[in-house]
Amino acid sequence: MNSVTATQRPLRKAVLPVAGFGTRVLPATKAIPKEMLPVFDRPAIQYVVDEALAAGIEHIVFVTGRNKGAIEDYFDHAYELELTLAQKNKNALVDELKSFLRPAGSMSFVRQQAALGLGHAVWCARDIIGDEPFAVMLPDMLMMAKPSCLAQMVEAYNKVGGNVIAVEPTDTPEQYGVIAPVSRDGRLIKMKGMVEKPKREDAPSNLFISGRYILQPEIFELLASQSPGAGNEIQLTDSMVRLMETQSFHALEYEGRTYDCGDKIGYLRANAAYALASEEFGDKAAATLQAALATASRS
Ligand code: G1P
Predict the structure, then answer these.
(1) What angle do helix axes 44-54 and 149-160 make, rounded to 10 degrees?
(2) Quick check: CB of 229 below 6 Å from ligand 1?
């Protein structure tokens, strides 16, 4: 459990909304959940779960939907596979497969029955979260950071409490939620507002909400009554704006880099970045990518 001041409740649970169709990366996601697409050598979702665990999260709530069963299977035993590998003395592989299984009961899966927006997806986790603070981690967004992005946020949360969201500069604020900053103390930013998918000329800053949140459970009441906003969806950002009226809210410009795997080029960029960052394969990946570029430019 994380160390916290007397007034703060510890952060133990994380919500991972995984119900989306992944329309921007079709046809790759026609029959496979987008969260299961590999980023270099493992499914994208694995990086996000690892980030959660590295920040001390004990229970993960997946908000899932139809055709997402592969995610549940991935975090369970694969008995036939494990047995077959063991019979072939491939014990290192068996150990690797078992290494990311969590203790029984520490992952929950709830269905979002209709695609009504991110705010609605988070609200679907309310019974499992109960009356305690929780993290929201958007699995499209991979954060390459040391310590992990959520770990940096937990450190900030342990100092300031309330609600903390991760932000990062962007050239395309119109694609995201954007904050209106007031002042900053190092990487910690006080805000006066947030807006979901502003027109480029109306964006209050270039700092976008990058997909990691630490929220207090009072957000659930607000989500329950939230009317649809941008894109006619129930937006988490809109309820956060209302929560700001009564609770402390900070943004953290975390140290690291976000890879948005939600579209084809972002996904390509993430694959290259994680291959290059691999301890085992980084050098070979660099040589391979350079050779591929040289060949491509010759043709
Ligand atoms: C969501 C959030 C947005 C955030 C973005 C990060 O938007 O609503 O505030 O900036 O994730 O990826 P979506 O990508 O679901 O449209």
Answers:
(1) 30
(2) no
**Domains of the chain, earliest start first:** 13-298 (3.90.550.10)
* Mean pLDDT estimate for the chain: 93
Which ligand 1 atom is at minimum distance from the Cα of 211? Answer: 6
Phi/psi of residue 13, nearest 5 degrees: -120, 150
Average pLDDT of the residues in 137-147: 95
CA of 111 to the centre of ligand 1 (A): 20
User: Are residues 41 and 278 in contact, defined by beta-carbon separation less than 8 angstroms?
Assistant: yes
pLDDT in tens, 40-53: 999 999 999 999 99
Q: What is the pLDDT of residue 99?
A: 85
Q: Which of 205-214, 252-261, 289-298 is predicted least confidently?
A: 289-298
Q: Which two tokens stand for residue 50?
A: 């690892």
Share of the chain above pLDDT 70, in %: 97
Q: Encode pLDDT of 163-176 as tens digits.
A: 999 999 999 999 99
**pTM surpassing 0.70?**
yes
Burial label for 87, CB within 10 Å (0-12, 13-18, 19+), is exposed
Q: Mutate which of 176, 195, 207 to test ligand 1's pocket (most atoms within 8 Å of Cβ)?
A: 176
Distance between CA 159 and CA 5 in Å, rounded? 8
Percent of all residues in the chain with a pLDDT value above 90, rounded to a whole number: 85
Output the CA 158–ligand 1 centroid distance in Å: 25
